[in-house]
Design brief:
Largest sheet: 7 strands, mixed
Strand order of the largest sheet: 2-3-5-6-7-9-11
Distance between the termini: 69 Å
Shape: globular
CATH superfamily of the largest domain: Transferase(Phosphotransferase) domain 1
Strand content: 5-15%
Length: about 600
């Protein structure tokens, strides 16, 4: 018995030493102190920062996410109407990986202390009122991949030292008051548009946001004219030499086009005028992916869908990947879906959105290479043993909501996913929800309210207005998210619901009835064995009902959904919408939605 006692004592001492390492000399958790300093420097009109300075652990706090070691790795307070400044105390969050404060009204300078956070890989301070210069200390962030400072009032020059950030793949400093010279940033997507002292009209070379901007010629008109003359002469001479080659090649091209008339070859190099893929994506060789997946062995298939199959693979360096192999290459739909997915995944960079390692394009293959998610998708995890606990289900709901919030309100143009369901949400190694499968997604200009297409997706998750008229908007995703919440609560899909309960009508009609009867315990997945938070259950059910209201205009925006899932404003929103719900019932909206019973895959033109 002495050995186990000794081990327990050693473990206890180790735990105490780790806890002590997080404490200030006054016995306060230094991360709690840092977050409270941040809170004090901000004005919080909606009261979303319900943080307790007497807490010993900040991980349960809203807007905060922690690692397995209970260290803060994410601070995400987007679109909450915050004013004030960013405290220098943020430099004490030593393990911070993601800082997301976009869409507020924060003023003051960007704290240079951010440069002392070695793990920081994602910074989004866009759409605020920040002034001053971009701190050169940001060049110390070796892991920085994503930096968005657009739509502020920053001045001065872009620090030359940012050229040294080899991992930086996205930099947006558009619409500030920055001035040149502009360094040759390594980031694949680099936007400086809207800075009058750099891009006055937006027509200058490099102002399109896809590559770094060089002002050598722009600052020297004579050199620019000489270069233009040389270019014209060179073009004239080369064109004469090319005419004969074009004539010879024309016949070959016509033959080739006739032979491959059913195949559309989307060449990213041609589209972007460069050899690399957009968003700093890696271009894989087909043989490399064949080797990684054991020549696309059936044993390696981890997912199937209308797009084709997904294979688990292992690259030569040991990196686990998921390889999505597109089918129907001869169809326009398949090619458009492939192009759309690459375009949107390159544009949307967020911790709750699935990233893309790279792609492979050949005359016979279209392959997308994603990071492998060892915890699988939510649809399969809801059926697995042991079952997902309530805290994990709640975290999945909040993470997915944050990803959709980013797509709808932080991207420009905004992105409508159109296929929000449990099978398209993955769990990363930290248990965070990651929304994937953007094959049906659409870009929508901010001034547009909706677009119209043929209906695609999974019935049961499709909003009534989309199913009836083909019109999609961000409220279409909100409806699908509401159905997802019901799936997380019940552990059942819409199809399983209709079979197991032998109920007529849609799943959401059943949920409304149970909520009216105050019998929410009948709703909860039996696998949870009553281990759930009843207050959070009631709030989540109400959010699901609000998200699935028949009329799109009555559904909340995703910013409201995030706040409600974090415990802010559910009761107020519920009371405000009660008259609308009564009106829906009077109009027979429940019966109108009763056809949403059996989930089936739809296909057709986009």
């Amino acid at each position: 018995m002495e050995k186990p006692i000794f081990l327990c004592a050693a473990a206890a001492l180790l735990s105490l030493s780790c806890t002590a390492a997080l404490l200030t000399p006054n016995g306060i958790n230094y991360e709690v102190q840092a977050l409270m300093d941040i809170k004090k420097s901000l004005n919080d009109p909606h009261g979303v920062l319900q943080w307790d300075q007497n807490s010993v652990d900040p991980c349960p706090w809203t807007m905060v996410a922690c690692s397995n070691d209970n260290l803060v790795i994410t601070l995400a307070i987007q679109s909450q109407g915050l004013t004030g400044t960013i405290s220098s105390g943020i430099g004490n969050l030593t393990q911070l990986k993601s800082l997301l404060l976009q869409g507020n009204k924060i003023s003051g300078h960007i704290p240079p202390e951010l440069g002392s956070l070695p793990e920081l890989g994602e910074i989004d301070l866009s759409d605020n009122l920040l002034t001053g210069e971009i701190p050169s200390s940001l060049s110390h962030l070796e892991n920085l991949r994503y930096l968005r400072l657009n739509n502020n009032s920053l001045t001065g020059a872009i620090p030359m030292a940012l050229c040294n950030l080899t991992r930086l793949s996205f930099l947006d400093v558009a619409y500030n008051n920055l001035q040149g010279p502009v360094p040759r940033i390594l980031a694949k997507r680099f936007n400086v548009l809207g800075n009058p002292m750099i891009c006055s009209s937006g027509n200058e070379s490099g102002c399109n946001g896809n590559s770094s901007l060089s002002l050598d010629n722009a600052q020297n008109p004579k050199a620019s004219r000489k270069q233009a003359s040389r270019d014209v002469a060179l073009a004239t001479a080369s064109s004469l030499g090319c005419i004969s080659m074009l004539i010879l090649g024309l016949g070959f091209l016509l033959c080739w086009k006739n032979k491959h008339s059913k195949q559309i070859f989307f060449d990213f190099a041609e589209q972007n005028g460069e050899e690399m893929c957009p968003g700093n994506l890696r271009r894989f060789e087909l043989v490399e992916l064949q080797r990684a997946t054991n020549n696309f062995s059936k044993r390696n298939i981890i997912g199937k869908g209308g797009f084709g199959h997904v294979y688990k693979g292992c690259l030569q360096d040991g990196t686990a990947v998921a390889v999505k192999r597109m089918k129907d290459l001869g169809s326009t739909d398949g090619e458009i879906q492939f192009k759309t997915e690459v375009e949107i995944v390159s544009l949307a960079v967020h911790r709750n959105l699935l990233g893309l390692h790279g792609l492979c394009v050949t005359p016979t293959e279209r392959l997308l290479v994603y990071p492998y998610m060892s915890n699988g998708n939510i649809a399969s995890r809801l059926k697995a043993k042991p079952s997902l606990d309530w805290a994990t289900r709640k975290r999945i709901a909040v993470g997915t909501a944050r990803g959709l919030l980013y797509l709808h309100e932080q991207c420009d143009p905004k992105i409508i996913h159109r296929d929000v369901k449990a099978a398209n949400i993955l769990l990363d190694k930290c248990g965070e929800a990651v929304l994937g499968d953007f094959g049906l997604a659409k870009l929508l200009d901010r001034q547009d309210s909706h677009f119209t297409t043929a209906v695609r997706g999974t019935v049961g998750h499709i909003a009534p207005e989309y199913l009836c008229t083909g019109q999609s908007s961000e409220k279409t995703d909100v409806f699908g998210f509401g159905i997802l919440l019901v799936e997380l609560i019940t552990g059942q899909t819409a199809l399983e619901f209709s079979k197991s309960t032998n109920q007529k009508g849609s799943m959401i009609d059943w949920v409304k009835k149970i909520d009216r009867d105050k019998k929410l315990d009948f709703l909860v997945d039996k696998e949870l064995e009553n281990e759930y938070n009843r207050v959070e259950l009631e709030e989540m059910v109400k959010v699901a009902i609000l998200c699935t209201q028949y009329l799109p205009r009555r559904r909340p925006m995703m910013a409201e959904v995030v706040r409600m899932l974090e415990g802010d404003g559910v009761a107020e929103k519920w009371i405000a919408s009660s008259l609308d719900r009564d009106s829906d019932l009077a109009d027979g909206s429940s019966s109108k939605s009763s056809f949403l019973v059996q989930p089936i895959e739809l296909s057709g033109p986009r």
